[in-house]
Design goal:
Length: 155
């Protein structure tokens, strides 16, 4: 996988999160991972179709997910993942991935994105690729979110 594919994801994250009321994110590290992703507690998956097939996965702890959902809901406290909190998290992943899709278009790759899927489960291994995929660890106000990118096309 071409490492430059991760730049649209990082750029979108750095642009969009402050616009949604979050502190400026910090990139912690970028690395290759082999086939499986271990859930930190809450996973949001958005697929890519058309010019590039694959997916981006936002992986976070339950505490991080409550923080992100609460911020998306303008500070409403989140103690459990009811419909409103889940909707807020899906919307966050949708906006982030849609922005990344515009960056992919700037590279000449037109992509559509799928509806975000949300999974709540800790320590499960999820096979997301038949080979290696890119991982980006981000920090947002002291809350970590890991972003996995698994695609079958190099740009």
């Amino acid at each position: 996988m071409d490492a430059k594919l991760v730049n649209p994801i990082i750029d979108a994250f750095m642009e969009v999160m402050p616009q949604m009321g979050f502190p400026m994110p910090k990139r912690l590290r970028v690395y290759l991972q082999d086939r499986n992703l271990i859930s930190n507690g809450v996973i949001l998956t958005v697929g890519f179709t058309q010019g590039m097939n694959g997916k981006v996965i936002y992986n976070m702890t339950a505490d991080s997910a409550r923080y992100f959902a609460s911020t998306m809901m303008l500070g409403v406290p989140v103690s459990k993942f009811g419909d409103l909190a889940q909707s807020a998290l899906r919307e966050m992943s949708n906006v982030l991935t849609a922005r990344a899709a515009t960056h992919f278009a700037d590279l000449g790759v037109e992509v559509d994105i799928t509806t975000p899927e949300l999974t709540i489960s800790e320590d499960n291994a999820i096979k997301i690729s038949d080979s290696k995929f890119l991982m980006v660890e981000m920090d947002v106000g002291g809350y970590r979110i890991d972003i996995a990118l698994a695609v079958d096309r190099d740009v």
